[in-house]
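Field reference: sequence -> structure
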Amino acid sequence: MADTPRHFLDISDLSQAELRQILDRSQAMKIARKGWPKGHVEADAPLKGRVLAMIFQQPSTRTRVSFEVAMRQLGGEVLVISANDMQLGRGETVADTAQVLSRYVDAIMIRAKRHDHLLELAQHATVPVINGLTNKSHPCQVMADIMTFEEHRGSIDKHAIAWVGDGNNVATSWIHAMTKLGGELRLGCPTELSPDASALAWAKDKGGKVKVTTSAEEAVTDASCVVADVWVSMHDTDAKARHNMLKPYQVNAALMKKARPDALFMHCLPAHRGEEVTADVMDGPQSVVFDEAENRLHIQKSILLRCLGAE
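Structure field:
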C-alpha cells in the first residue's frame, strides 16, 4: 500500500512540532541565502527532477511567484495551470483531475475558489497537495506572517496579536496558528463579518487564547502586532455594504497608538491605502508588509521540502 501523501491543507492539521520545524527551516534557509544571486539553485538541488503543478482558479501575484521561485531555487520545475487551461469544473470531476495529475507531477498546489475543491483534490491525489488559498483559509500566508513576526519580536507565544476587519480566510488561519503555537489572538470584527464559527469552536476546544470583539480599539490595545486585510475580496459582491461596515476598523495612526509602542503592522497584500489602512501606517516604520511578502518564498520552500520528503 502506498504511503499517505504529506499534504499541507491547514495549519490546524499539523502539530506544534511540525509547524516549528517548518518555521525554523525557513529561517535557516533565508539566512543561508544571504549574498547569493536571486537565481541561485541550492547546492544539493534537493528537488531536482521533481515537478510542482500549480492550479489557479483565482488571480495571484505573491502565491504564484513565490512558489515558482521556491521550486526553482530547490532545483525543481513548475507547471502553471489556470482555470481556463483545464477541464476542472467544466466536465471533469476534481477527483479525476487529482488522479490524472498524480500520474504526471510530484506535488500539486491549488489556489481554489472553494475549500471543498481542495479537500476533494487531496482525498484523491496520490501526491502531496498544498493549499495556496481557499475561501476558508490561507495557511501559507499566515506561516510567512508568523515567520516575519518572530524575526522582529521573538517567539510569538509571548505576545498578543490583533486582527482588525473582516474575519475572513486569513483570519481563520491566524486562529489555527495562534492556537497551535501559543500567544493571544484578538479579532476585532463587525458582527456581520465575524470569524468562522467552526474555527472558533475548534480553538476553544484546543484551549486557544482567542477573543472576538466588535471593537477595533479593544482588539489592538497593548497588542504586539496589528494585522489587516482588504475590505472586499475577489469573491465578495457586496462592496458598498462592506465599506460602510468596515470604516470603523481602518488601521490608522490613532488606532496604532493604542497598540504597544513597538507594535508591528502586517498585511498580506495587495493593500488599498486609504481603505483598510492609511498610507502613513502602510508605509511607516512599524510596517513589515514587504518582509511578509519576501518570507512567502522561504516558507514555501520549507513546506515543499516537508511535503516531498526532502528534509
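Note: The chain is about 40% helix and 15% strand.
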